[in-house]
Each structure stands twice: as C-alpha cells, then as structure tokens.
Amino acid sequence: MADASQPNGRRFDQLAHKPDEINKFWRNANFFFDRVYQTMGLDPLYRAYLSSPKRVLTVSCPVRMDNGSIQVFTGYRVQHNNARGPFKGGLRFDTEVDRDEVMALAMLQTWKNALVELPYGGAKGGVVCDVKKLSLNEKEALTRRYTAEIMPVIGPFDDIPAPDLGTDSQVMAWMLDTYSMMTGRQALSVVTGKPVALGGSCGREEATGRGVMYVLKRFMEVTQHRSLEGMKIAVQGFGQVGFHASRLLDELGAQVIAISDKFGGIFNENGIDIESAGQYYRENGQLTDYPEGDAISNEELLTCECDVLIPAARENTIDSTIAPHIQAKIVVEAANGPTTPEADQILCEQGVTVLPDILANAGGVTVSYFEWVQGLDNYFWDLDRVRAELQRVMNRAFDTVNAKADESDCDYRTAAYTIAVGRVAEAVRLKGIFP
Ligand code: GLU
After folding, report:
1. Residue 414 clears pLDDT 90, i.e. is over it
2. What's the rounded Cα separation, in Å, for the pair 316 and 370?
3. What are the structural domains, with CATH classification, of the chain?
4. Which atom of ligand 1 lies closest to the CA of 160?
5. What predicted TM-score, i.e. pTM, was given to this entire model?
6. Ligand 1: distance of its center to the CA of 32 in Å?
C-alpha cells in the first residue's frame, strides 16, 4: 500500500532490502514506534523522518593480527536523530552485530535519551567480531582503527560513543586517545564510560544496573506500596548490567534466585550469593559449574517461578514461544529490545507489567550525560552526588511514565514511547525542515 507520508519515495527500511531480509529487531523497533505514532495524532508528514536514521556509516577496519595476518572487520555507526542535541549512544563489539541491529539500537537510543530528558539525539555503533577471541593488542588495534574510520562523524558536540556489549572503559580510553592524537587536542567529552583516571565519572560502571534497581524500587513503592524485601528475582545475563542490578537488588533485601550467561544459568531458591557468583564469573568467564545452585538453561530461567524477571542480555530473548510460559508478574527490561512485539502483546494479555527498556535501562546513558557535563566543566562530582542525581532522574522518568499510563489507561511501553516520541517530534517540528 502507498505510504501517504512518502508520496515520492519509500521509507528507509524498504530501501536496501527485500522484505524478508529485514532484520527482525529493526522491524520490531519500527513496530513499537509506528504503533504510538498512529495513535498520537501526530502529523503523518513527519513519520518517515522520525523513523529513518539520519546517517548510516559502514566502515572496514583492517587489523594486523598477532600471527601476522590481516583481518578486515566491518563496523557501523548509525546516527538516528539529533533534533534534541548531539548524537549519543554505545558501541557494541559482538558477533551478532549487523547494520539493521545497529539501526534498531540507534532508534531506541533516541527515544531513551528523550524519555529521561537528556539533551541528546540517539546513535549506536557496532563492530562484527568475537571479542573474546581477540588478544588485548588486537582489540586495541581494532578499536583505534574503528575510531579513525568514524572520526568524521564523532566529536564532543557531534556524536559521543560509550560502552555497550563487549566494550568497556579501556575501549573508551583507546577511543579517547585516538581522537586526541588525530585532532591534536584533548577532548575529554568525545566518549563517556572512560576510566575515572581519564576523566570518567564515578558510578558509571554500575549505572545501568543501578538505574534498573531505582525504577523497580519506585514502581513497587508508588504502585504496590511495598519495598523489594523478599521478592524473588530472576536475572538473564550476568554482564555488567545483570551483575550490578542483581547485586543492588540483593542489597535491598530482594532474593536473586536465578542468574545466567549465554551458556546457561543456576537456580537456588534460597537466593544466590551475588558477590561470590560475580567473582566466579570473572575468574571463569562463565557460570557453568558454579557450585551454589542447580544448573538450568536460559529458557528455564526465563520461565522459572519468580516475582520479577529481568532480561539483561540481548534483543529478542522473550519471543512468542517463551512469553506464554513466563511466570513472573513483572518484567524489567535491562537489555535493549528483549521483548518482541508478539511477546509484548502476550505479556499484556497475561497481566504482566513490563517496565520497558527505554525507561528501565536509561541509567547508563544518564550517568554518561553526567560524565559529559563534568568533562566540559572540568569539575568532577563525588559518588554520592552521581547516585543522588541518577535516582532523581530515574524517579522523575518513572513518575512521568506512570502518570501517562494512568491518564491514557495504557501499558508502560506505550506510555514511555508516547512521551519520548512526542518530545522528539516536537523538537523536529520546531526546527523545521532544512533548507
Ligand atoms: N550502551 C548504553 C545504552 O544502551 C549506554 C549508552 C551511553 O552511555 O551513551 O543505553
């Protein structure tokens, strides 16, 4: 059917692919956007503008490997929308990266940044690689070459990368150094998630997990009038986000009864000692054979008997085959895009409350914003201030979404998207179309 908003062209997602080649995640991201766009009564003329990425950069990164061979890695930087400020979003090193995945993540980042009222647009980067198989030297060479390749589009007021799956503060340190060497000037705020010794913010590493905890805590207090004490929680994914979320929820008296990584997980109905599991994971690179619980599969984790399920791994883990078997009454999306639209519908029908990704996992980019501000000011905050400001931002975002959900009698994802898309649409409308 012809698209009224695009009389002379096709939407971006139809340009480069035959329909069956479109990555499911990109389609899902568009689905959630389109659903609210249609009900919000926004001008149809802006629909394609808001869903299309502004720039999609593909780069080849040749790297001399330790054995003398040269391997070429493909990387992407997708800048989705910058109506509200410079592009901002993480960089992922992962075997599953492809162009459409990065496009979907960049779009989600635009809505997330708007929802928590950061003065940013949204972007995302990715490099296709098996990061666990790279030596430290190879990883550094790949990071520096990728940074050099995307140099024309990044900068403290243009686009500010940060860590995501497979990247960390060391990767950001190499990016910062490469940018500084190539421009001949120090620009602390070109990346966030840097080591504290290089102008990073304290509290950045735990920030996404801490934000997950604040949102769930606020939800329980405001809508259920109770604390997290004694609640049984299952967490899928034990990277930085899953680990810190588990640790902080445990500190508040919740019982984390199941955790997992990509190989499988463990279950212990009396609660898992998160610090000791974290140490085991750091030493062994996986949770398999961790002795303090029963081995379970990821599918068993997602469907286990618990009060709260926290997907903290990657996209599309809760699909229509898993959703009907989920026993948790609350799902907190610590990962980006963990629930497919079909599964989201099933969960809604089952009366499950979903705290959506663009709200629940916004703590990371929020502290990234604090880091950017601190770098531009050359004035650095202490940990108490970072945590207090993060809690203020997350509580405000939850309260706004909760009020919208009440007012419109809708689920939290619809409420969050309505607010976020509305803010970006307003910025686009005010700026107008150039030229
Ligand atoms: N990668 C994180 C996210 O998905 C953080 C992005 C940032 O700090 O810019 O939100």
Report:
1. yes
2. 30
3. 53-187 (3.40.50.10860), 207-360 (3.40.50.720)
4. 9
5. 0.95
6. 20
